[in-house]
Design goal:
Rossmann fold; oxidoreductase activity, acting on the CH-OH group of donors, NAD or NADP as acceptor; alpha/beta; oxidoreductase; Isopropylmalate Dehydrogenase; magnesium ion binding; globular; NAD; manganese
Length: 379
Amino acid sequence: MTHDAKMTYRIGLLPGDGIGKDVITEARKVVETAASSFGFSVEWREFPYGAEHYLNTGEILPDEALEEMQQCCALLQGAIGDPRVPPGVLERGILLKTRFYFDQYVNLRPALTYPNVPTPLKRGEGIDIVVVRENTEDLYVGLGFLSNEEIEATVDMKRPSYTLKGALSLKVDPSMKFAAQLALATEMGVRRITRYACNLARRRKASEIVLATKSNAVKELYGLWEEIAKEETSKEGISLKLVNVDALCYQLARDPSGYGVILCPNLFGDIVSDLLAGLTGGLGLSPSANIGDGLSMFEPVHGSAPDIAGTGRANPLAAILSASLMLEHLTQVEASEAVKNAVLEYLRAFPRQRHPMELGGEATTSEVGDSVASIIQRM
C-alpha cells in the first residue's frame, strides 16, 4: 500500500519508567525520520503515567486519560515498572487497564534472528516466527482472591464486548491460607483471535498455524480453545496443529525452524514469546503490538531496567521495531519496512563496536537511534 502524503497521525507517547524514556526517545526519532522520508507527519501527545507520577500524586491512570488517548491514532509505550512500587500496581493499573479499556485482544510478538547477533541457535539456523497471543482473557482477567479460610466474592467484570457476573464461594478444611485465580475463555474471544492468526498466516503465505494448548491437564479451558480454533481454521481454510505448550517449548529450544504462526492463550503466549526472545538475541530485539478494533498500543517486550536508566546502556532496537509495527498498523507500509530494513542493515553493516552495549558493542542508546535514522535517510 502506498503512503498518503497528506496524512497526519496523532500518536500518544507513554514513556513510562526507567529505560522506557530512553528507548522511546529513539523510537520517536526514527518515526520522525521515516515520516519525513515518506511524506506524512506525526503529532505527539505525551502522557506522564508511570512510577514517578504515581509516587508524586498517588494517581495511576485516570479514566480521563483513557478518553484523551482515544483521540490518538495509536499509542507508543516505553516500559512500565519500578522497584519503589509494589509489583502489579503499575502493570495492572496501566498496561492491563489500557488493553482491556480499548479491547486490544491481539498481542503480536514477532521473533526473528538478526544478522551478527549472538544466539544459542546452531550456525545457519534461523527463526521467523510470530506469536499471536490472546490479550484479554485466560488468567490475566484479574479475578484473583486470597484468604485465610474462605472466599465469598462477587464477580462483576466489564469488558467492551461483554460482562461477566456471578459469585464465588470457597472454603478450605482444615483452615489454611489459600488463593484462587480464575481463568476465562469465551467463544467470542477465541474465535476472533483465531481469525486474526489465520489472516496473518495468509499474509505470510503460510497454510498452517500451531495452537499452544494443555487440554490434557486443563480440559475445560483449553478444550474450548481447541474446539473453537478447529472450527475457525476450518472456515478459513488454514490447517491447525495442536501442540501441548510444554512440548512446544521443548521443540522450539531443540529446533524452531518448522514454526511460523503460533496461536497462544494469554499466559502461554507470554511464556513462549519470552523463550523465543532468548533464542533470537534477547529482549532488546523483541517488539510487540497490542491490537484491537479501536486504538492499538505498541511497546518493546523488555522491562524498565531502572538500574541502567539514563546511562546510555539501554538497547532501543526493540522500541524502534515496535514503532515499525505501529507504522504498518497505520498503513504506512513502506515506512514500516524501511524502519525494519534499517535495523537489519545497521546490524549487518555497522562494525560490532557500533552496536548496542547489550549486544557487545559500545554504542550509546542515542547513537544507536542516530545510526538507524541515518540509514532511513539514505534509502
